[in-house]
Each structure stands twice: as C-alpha cells, then as structure tokens.
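Table 4 source record.
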Amino acid sequence: MSTPSACLESSLVSGRPLSSSGSAAALGERADRVGAIASTVCAVHCASWPFLLALLPSLGSTLLASEWLERGFVVFATLLVIASLAYGFKRHRRASAAVFAAPGLGLIWFGSFGPWHHDLVPHAVLMTLGGALIAAAHVRNLRMRRALHVHDSACRHD
C-alpha cells in the first residue's frame, strides 16, 4: 500500500488524477490544475504589466494589451473557478475554497470592468491580488478533494 506522499508525488509526476472514481473526477482535478496554473500566470502577468507595457511598442505587440483579451480571460476564469468549486463542493462538502475565490473574482472583475481599469498601477494591483486569490482557491479545492482519496489496491497511480 502506498503512502499518501508517495501517491501525491506519483500523481504529480505522471499527471494522472488521484481519484479512482472515473472521468468526471479526473476532469474536476484537471480543471483545478489548469485554473491554479492559469491564475498564477495571470497574477505574474498583472504584476509585471507596468514593465511589459514599456516593452510592448519595441516588440511591436499589442495583443497582450488588448482589452477584449483581458476581459475574455476574466469571464473564462470566472466560469472555470465556479465550475471547479461546484464540482469540488459536491465531493468534499466544504466551502472554504470560496473564501479565496469570491474576493479574487471581485477583484479581477472590478479591475477589468471598474473605474480603475485604465489606471495602470491600481489595475495591476487589483488583477494581481485577484489572480493570486483565485489560484489559492483552486489549490485549496484540489487539496480538499485529495484529502478524500483512499490509498488501497484500487489506486490507479503507481
């Protein structure tokens, strides 16, 4: 029988889900992984935005400065975190991930659609903090789902 840390390490290395309850569980875990990574990348992007903005003209790129791209990502991040947390809640019955997700979503929506959208520093701060909170929500949700995993001969991981 594997130890919990060995099961976790095996899952992280192989990329296979810990859950043995089928494709829906794998999809939920992958959604949290994608959400955590995307939210972290978003937070790093937003924190470095003032520096990137100075470089964009010299690189000839305006796609990263696109308002519609940012707003589209905000909508995508919102749908992903809501779906992921709803699925996780059905399994673990804990709402603690929402404690991170709700203020994170509020910050990114306010930063993207609010009055400070065109103010460089307040916008970057709101989006960075919001992205970090949403990443924390995905990680918390993933950990709560993994806490339900039973390590036995039915484990699908090595």
